Amino acid sequence: MRNSAAGGAGDTPADGWSLVVPLKPLARAKSRLAPVAAGGLRPRLALAFAEDTVAAALACAAVRDVAVVTDDPAAAAALAALGARIVPDAPGGGLNAALAHGARTVRAARPDAAVAALNADLPALRPLELGRVLAVAGTFPRAFLADAAEMGTTFLSAIPGAELEPAFGGASRRRHLSSGAVEIRLAEVDSVRRDVDTGEDLAAALALGVGPRTAARWVGAAG
After folding, report:
1. Is 145 buried (19+), middle (13-18) or exposed (0-12) by CB count in 10 A?
2. How far apart are CA 145 and CA 156, in angstroms?
3. 8 A C-beta contact, residue 51 and residue 4
4. Distance CA 59, CA 44 (A)
5. 11-222 has which CATH code?
6. Following DSSP, what letter does each residue of 130-186 receive, concatenated?
7. How do the pLDDT tens digits run along the chain, 223 residues long?
């Protein structure tokens, strides 16, 4: 496949990776989950997804820090309590503008940072699987991981000296390939690819094994 990498030993930047995680206001998040998460459950699940994503990312040995780009005060407080840095969504221009802003903010303080964008809706994320993805990403200027549907993107990286150039949303896998980013092709990193937009996605994530906050919210709602 053009612009693809199966991976090898890989590299970890000496100072570790800075991850940028975007999160829209919870009241508007995860609208496609409404059929299975009515009322106030949907925003609570969106926050739980983000909390489990950030907690797992911070537990990854290759990760130095996590910057969450959000204007939601409740989410900001909860994710800061986990150890994330909160970056206000100053551009207010949507997902890719938020990611580019987050990467610039990280590099304003640490110009040689290796940065990676990571979806906020990866509730089954495993630190070791994320570490494997980051190891391969470190061998290319820019690299990305497609989502489980092979259409979107859950992860995009840029080593020091390379711009992130995010093009998330919809059929972003094709756009990231066209931009010159290398597609990471690894087996057994399902937790890094399993984002949750629909009820079917949530069922698949639950089957993988979600983090404790998502599990508690979902079981509590079912009970």
Report:
1. buried
2. 7
3. no
4. 22
5. 3.90.550.10
6. HHHHHHHHTTSSEEEEE-TTSSSEEEEEE-TTS------SSSHHHHHHHTTPEEE--
7. 346 766 544 556 668 999 999 999 999 999 999 999 988 999 999 999 999 999 999 999 999 999 999 999 999 999 999 999 999 999 999 999 999 999 999 999 999 999 999 999 999 999 999 999 999 999 999 999 999 999 999 999 999 999 999 999 999 999 999 999 999 999 999 999 999 999 999 999 999 999 999 999 998 676 5
Q: Which residue has the tokens 């503008």?
A: 97
* C-alpha to C-alpha distance for 26 and 141, rounded to whole angstroms: 33
3-state secondary structure of 91: coil
**Residues 223 and 58 sit within 8 Å (Cβ to Cβ):** no
**Residue 13: HSE in the Cβ half-sphere, 13 Å Cα cutoff:** 24
